[in-house]
Design goal:
Layout: E1 15-17, E2 36-38, E3 46-48, E4 64-69, E5 77-86, E6 91-99, E7 111-118, E8 126-130, E9 140-147, E10 152-161, E11 171-176, E12 180-183
């Protein structure tokens, strides 16, 4: 399913659609999907499949995102502006398809997916959610929830090391179908 690329709004059903959450774009090394910006000079996301020998087929649409973390303590992260801010003290749930590549230019360790809330591009004010270690080579749907401690207009996503980890290492995650946040009931 390809997302419409011109209009993103919160629906009446309590959903905030994430701009280009299927990371559609022309596959390439150091490529930013439309509506997303790389966070830092060592943060060059890749639109997949194709680059670095990654052949995994997309789960949703025609492409997906590839991010890595490195042994020098650097990791890749990208950010986008939401069409409607996350609201303070609200509970949200979301789904994202994650896996890792069998070969990604030597970045083959098991990593995790992290998502942050902030108030400008690449701002990391609150760590919203963290996936379990992504050890699967086939797409797996992860369901995550969080409570926003403040209003946030931006999100950032990143590949990171599974914790605890004594030393940084080379890892990758592939990300697809991060389509929307949905308001959830608080227990």
């Amino acid at each position: 399913m390809l997302l419409a690329m011109n209009s993103y709004t919160a629906s009446s059903q309590g959903k905030i659609q994430i701009p280009n959450g299927s990371f559609e774009g022309t596959p390439g090394i150091g490529s930013e999907p439309k509506y997303w910006k790389s966070c830092g000079t060592n943060s060059t996301a890749d639109i997949m499949p194709g680059p670095w020998g990654v052949k995994q087929l997309p789960k949703d649409g025609d492409s997906y995102l590839g991010l890595t973390a490195r042994e020098d303590k650097t990791y890749e992260s990208i950010s986008c502006k939401l069409p409607t801010a996350l609201q303070k003290d609200s509970c949200y749930t979301f789904k994202v398809d994650l896996c890792r590549a069998t070969s990604y230019a030597g970045y083959n360790g098991v990593g995790i997916f992290r998502i942050w809330g902030g108030n400008k591009y690449c701002d990391k004010h609150q760590l919203l959610a963290v996936s379990a270690p992504v050890s699967n080579y086939e797409w797996k749907n992860y369901v995550l929830s969080f409570i926003s401690k403040d209003n946030y207009d931006y999100i950032s996503i990143e590949c990171y090391y599974k914790m605890p980890s004594l030393f940084p290492y080379r890892t990758n995650i592939l990300i697809d179908a991060l389509l929307f946040f949905e308001i959830c009931a608080r227990a």
